[in-house]
């Protein structure tokens, strides 16, 4: 029996954290022949080596090198270049993760593809069904469209099944497998803690906070970004904060002339270059509190049981609130500072993890696909 050929697609840095355990599980299977595809949606030469090394990933066999640009430019380049790879290599299955432009572009290209012999490749979406119910978020549109054309939808939490059912997706396509990002976290957290990255910054464990900020709604408007920075500076009077600055955010700080606003704070708010995965996880793992607008960090802090103040009015990951450590604050100064004060006053949270967030999600995904393709190849 010929191996089932799989394209495993990643485009943005967080995608590699998600695809790493899936890649290893596919590699270990006798059923699949996996090709790692990097669209190049996010590419940082300095960080790429560390990401592949940290995550035990090989260099991608296919690199589309699309680079940055507007949504239309980037999506168009991915569609064009990925379609060429589909035509040339004719994979049986394309696996996409998350909700970035690479996710939707590669899904559309695959869903429309017909090979010369009449075969059609299938689409599997890892981290399907998450909904913020905020269609001003580009990621929400990507999630909705990708799920509507996927053949396999692998979900991380029960709310995702409810969302997909409400949208008319047949239950037979939906598989509750857990969270592949947590697979990677549990695999790397001891190594990350041993790195003790906080010591290089002159910090003591559990006596600092971590900040991340990159959502367009938070960083693309100068008044909104300035207001958030003001709150961060006020929070930094309560405990030191470290802020690895996303490239998008760094660009906006320069464009809006806000760099001076956060400089000269006597180390209370330290702005850092972007960090590799293990180095960032090291900082995260011993933080007292995290302030973020990242969905993935809401999940990671839930497992690490670290208070998370989300600088958004909604979340597509409600389990991080109902069973995790997450609280929504938006950009409301009082809510943000109240969250910091509560974190400083509280004891460590020891509640159990969300169901199936146990480090075995990738294995469950591959088991589902093995069973499905075994039936297909057998003519069932």
Main traits of this protein?
single chain, 380 residues, alpha/beta, 6-stranded parallel beta sheet, 15 helices, 15% strand
Topology:
Blueprint lengths: L3 E7 L2 H16 L3 E7 L6 H10 L7 E2 L7 H19 L3 E5 L3 H11 L10 E7 L9 H11 L3 E4 L2 H9 L7 E3 L3 H16 L13 E3 L4 H4 L2 H14 L5 E4 L2 H9 L13 E4 L4 H9 L3 E4 L2 H10 L3 E3 L8 H4 L3 E3 L4 H13 L15 H17 L3
Parallel strand pairs: 1-2, 1-4, 2-3, 4-5, 5-6, 6-7, 8-9, 8-11, 9-10, 11-12, 12-13
Biggest sheet layout = 7 strands, parallel
Query: So what's the overall shape?
Result: globular
Strand order of the largest sheet: 3-2-1-4-5-6-7
N-to-C order of helices and strands: EHEHEHEHEHEHEHEHHEHEHEHEHEHH
Rounded mean pLDDT score: 93
How many angstroms separate the termini? 15 Å
User: Helicity, in percent?
Assistant: 40-55%
| Rg calc | 21 Å
**How many helical stretches?**
15
Low-confidence stretches: none
Approximately what portion of the residues adopt beta-strand conformation?
A: 5-15%
